[in-house]
Write a structure and sequence with these properties.
By secondary structure, the protein is α/β, with parallel strands linked by helices. The chain folds into two domains: 6-65 and 102-271 and 439-476, 3-Layer(aba) Sandwich (Alkaline Phosphatase, subunit A); 275-433, no CATH class. Helix content is 36%, strand content 19%. It has 14 helices and 18 strands. The strands form four sheets. Strands 9-10-11-15-12-13-14 form a seven-stranded mixed β-sheet. Strands 2-18-7-1-6-5 form a six-stranded mixed β-sheet, sandwiched between helices. The chain has a three-stranded mixed β-sheet with strand order 16-8-17. Strand 3 (73-76) and strand 4 (81-84) form a beta hairpin. Helix 5 (153-179) runs antiparallel to helix 6, helix 6 (186-212) packs antiparallel against helix 7 (224-232) and helix 6 (186-212) runs parallel beside helix 8 (237-254).
Length: 484
């Protein structure tokens, strides 16, 4: 290994190891195949843990600590605020309680299009849907990235050509899917177009700028594949063609390495095909919960409300979704309720949830211990292992679930939607998704050169990958100084 090189980490959101390897084999990602065949890259598997979401996994990768991040969105009891990531991120309202004493992966480097600043000196104006909540003095504005990009005729021509191609292809595939009776998630079709056409190009340009200016390490998130998989499903042809666009980005960045940088490509989780929950009978999960609790107001984060108006309601229940995962928060308690307390307050809720046939697994706490239900029965020991074995190695999955269940920020009940071994129910309106358990959503990868001796064999959660990457960063960077 050549000493004195900076580490560039490209995060491809939502791409499972199996899908990566299939894309390499069938020629969808020709440059990535060159990395494997000519440069000795190997796709190392690891488990991201539960929940299989970007905020959870990315916090683990960047800080080594993703505790108390129970989902893509949740209810913060202490601040009494909804917390979510994405287009209307509110994490900054609670961010001061997180990552204290952690060693960020990108300290003094560049962290581009990520959920968190991770100690970086600069994010090049590209943060994931939101301004960084702890902006460093040297971090530039987005306009300082956009302006040089659009003023460069080469970049502008590349962007314009891809825009025409992407819009036409996306519109055609959307209409084709509708004509075949499939129902792409329209909101994600729009966000995918924005990601692919604009944000993806800018993020790549920002990485190139960071490399030209000598920043190290560099971490950058690319989200277009995940967005399109939400819209059309991870097994759709349009989704898989997006990997050509991703492969082109990997090639362009790899060509700038010269003798100054080394490249790692990784993902944070995978995706599985999903069926929207409401497709069964036209009702959302919130409306089902409302049937269990007559007179209660049911509020769905990023969804519809059900039941009477808040001022007329007997009580309140909040639901926070991430694909096939749902957290349920009962009332306005400032602490998480024990399942026996919850049963005493809302007996029909616990009875309804634990026996509901479209929920594969329900989880709560009793006296500081984990409680699980499946098929209407409380399960533990061998019967629990039998349930978990349908999703993954039961010993590993039990530990992952127990960790999530230990979070004070988790719901009073944590619920996992049904899974048939291939397709999962989705509490959101998505054709593909993640956040829950089952299938490829739990199995991302780290693509790195074999001679770097990266070992992910014991990584059972994304927070355990942090030390592996920090070690590689330090080994590669020995004797390196940033270029002026």
């Amino acid at each position: 290994m050549t000493a004195g090189r900076g580490l560039v980490v490209l995060h491809v959101d939502g791409l499972s190891k199996r899908t990566l390897e299939e894309a390499i084999r069938d020629g969808t990602m020709p440059f990535t195949r060159e990395l494997v065949e000519r440069e000795g890259y190997v796709a190392h598997p690891y488990r991201c843990g539960v929940p299989s979401t970007t905020p959870f996994a990315q916090a683990g990768i960047l800080y080594g600590d993703n505790s108390e991040i129970p989902s893509f969105r949740w209810w913060d009891r202490e601040q009494e605020v909804p917390v979510q990531f994405g287009a209307r991120s509110t994490f900054k309202t609670v961010a001061d309680r997180y990552f204290k004493g952690c060693e960020p992966l990108t300290k003094d480097g560049a962290c581009i299009a990520a959920c968190y600043p991770a100690g970086a000196a600069d994010d090049f104006g590209i943060a994931y849907h939101d301004r960084t909540y702890a902006q460093e003095e040297r971090s530039r504005s987005a306009m300082r990235v956009v302006a040089p990009y659009v003023l460069n005729p080469v970049h502008l021509g590349d962007w314009a050509g891809h825009t025409i191609l992407a819009l036409g292809r996306t519109a055609g595939d959307y209409l084709s899917a509708r004509s075949e009776g499939r129902k792409p998630a329209r909101a994600y079709v729009v966000s995918d177009a924005l990601e692919e056409i604009f944000v993806h190009h800018l993020t790549r340009f920002a990485v190139e700028q960071a490399m030209d200016e000598g920043y190290a390490p560099i971490y950058a998130g690319f989200y277009a594949y995940d967005e399109i998989a939400h819209a059309f499903g991870p097994d759709d042809g349009h989704t898989l063609r997006m990997l050509r666009h991703v492969d082109r980005t990997i090639r362009k960045i790899a060509e700038r390495r010269r003798d100054r940088y080394e490249l790692v490509v990784l993902s944070d989780h995978g995706q599985v095909p999903m069926t929207p929950f409401a497709q069964h009978d036209g009702r959302t999960f919130g409306q089902v919960v409302s049937d269990w609790l007559p007179g209660f107001r049911i509020e769905e984060m990023k969804g519809k409300g059900a039941g009477p108006r808040p001022e007329d309601a007997r009580g309140l229940v909040r639901l926070a979704y991430s694909g096939g995962l749902a957290h349920l928060y009962a009332g306005d308690s400032r602490r998480r309720l024990d399942v026996d307390e919850l049963r005493a307050r809302m007996p029909s809720l616990v009875a309804g949830a634990t026996a509901f046939e479209r929920l594969a697994l329900v989880m709560g706490r009793r006296g500081g211990r984990d409680v699980f239900w499946s098929g209407g029965e409380e399960v533990s020991g061998a019967p629990l292992d039998d349930v978990l074995s349908r999703y993954d190695d039961p010993d590993i999955l039990r530990e992952q679930l127990s960790r999530l269940n230990s979070f004070a920020a988790s719901g009073d009940l944590v619920m996992f939607a049904g899974w048939d071994g291939d397709r999962q129910l989705n509490f959101e309106e998505q054709a593909g998704g993640h956040g829950s358990i089952g299938g490829e959503q739990l199995h991302p990868f780290v693509l790195a050169r074999a001679d770097w001796n990266v070992d992910t064999s014991r990584v059972q959660g994304a927070h355990e990958l942090h030390a592996v990457l920090c070690d590689l960063r330090d080994r590669l960077g020995e004797g390196r100084s940033r270029a002026a």
